[in-house]
Amino acid sequence: xxxxxxxxxxxxxxxxxxxxxxxxxxxxxxxxxxxxxxxxxxxxxxxxxxxxxxxxxxxxxxxxxxxxxxxxxxxxxxxxxxxxxxxxxxxxxxxxxxxxxxxxxxxxxxxxxxxxxxxxxxxxxxxxx
Amino acid sequence: xxxxxxxxxxxxxxxxxxxxxxxxxxxxxxxxxxxxxxxxxxxxxxxxxxxxxxxxxxxxxxxxxxxxxxxxxxxxxxxxxxxxxxxxxxxxxxxxxxxxxxxxxxxxxxxxxxxxxxxxxxxxxxxxxxxxxxxxxxxxxxxxxxxxxxxxxxxxxxxxxxxxxxxxxxxxxxxxxxxxxxxxxxxxxxxxxxxxxxxxxxxxxxxxxxxxxxxxxxxxxxxxxxxxxxxxxxxxxxxxxxxxxxxxxxxxxxxxxxxxxxxxxxxxxxxxxxxxxxxxxxxxxxxxxxxxxxxxxxxxxxxxxxxxxxxxxxxxxxxxxxxxxxxxxxxxxxxxxxxxxxxxxxxxxxxxxxxxxxxxxxx
Lengths: 129, 363
What we know:
- The complex is a heterodimer of chains A (129) and B (363).
- By secondary structure, chain A is α+β, with helices and mostly antiparallel strands.
- Chain A has 3 helices and 9 strands.
- Chain A binds chain B through residues 37-38, 40-41, 43, 59, 61, 63-64, 66, 85-86, and chain B through 27-28, 31-34, 226, 230, 291-294, 315-316, 323, 345, 347.
């Protein structure tokens, strides 16, 4: 099992978000990466775009499928992990670190209503994963 | 969903299973790219029990096959196989098949999706036109396993009574595998050397396990449908329902090698002969791009602000390290070197028309 950060929050659709002050870093979990398989393409949002919670923010494509990444919280895109367009290796190997997808400027305290690590792992277990 | 005699083996090996034309089949084991590389460099095993198999016997068996099969069976030596189509009167394929010419039998291997239609189609021609031939669907009695990749011969030889070096590419022989009567054909659908084995279904698991064991030091591993699709796409081989169908004929699909346009008396051939003279507005092409999204089946292709075609199959080729696709486009945009834009989820990405096939093995 990957080293899932305990400070991050998680979604049912396998995104993670780490909020520090007014900045949030987002990505997809090791489970999502594993489920997609061999990664071939990542499409990230434009910097400056306002993303509303629930909107499709990014796409992660594998040999066999396309995974849509939803913004779990509302915010303005502050940075994207541009290197992933050419090389998806960091996302495959280190989805919670080098494989982050994008950063949002958010309201302080955003994401508090999302699942914590224990709840996410309980969900995975209940789905037999 | 129906199971093959090997479904249990796939599940036990941890394969991801999918519904393929009503069959519970493995889509991948270790991963589509890894499995594709394995077949290109070593050897892989394929469960093809879901495919259909017809055996045609009787006095008029070859006349019947010549009537329904687009290639020329009579030009084949006994013990050789040929790719072709079952065509409707308009020249559109009902299926693409391999026909194996035996001394007193013709074997036809058909797609899983053609099992319900192909046998009755051939039988109906036999009945209506008075051919003395017995068309037997042996799909449910026989197992079919393919070994593909350069180490196929070394994997199979220790288990088998036939000197495999004497079986030519697209040739076949009858022999024993583990003492089980078997038709061994040097055929396949990956662009690699390899064999397809046909034998009584009850022995499927034993043969499967023995092949995996025999090829252990040679890299043998089971391969799923995902890699199978990629292997055939790299090798420029069509998938029925995608590259060819009741709406796309073999000339448009650039598959004239599966036709004998000089044949007389074959269903659909006169229509294709006429189409060739008249010309046709669409052409199949191969497309490649470095990086970017995959242009999957159904992706629209654009040039100079208008749509000029559609992708019929697309994927990622680990062999040539490109995103690849087959597409059906307006003939004016089919020349190699042409740039077309694939529209993927609202954005357009450049792809180049490249020569076919993407991959050809060195012999």
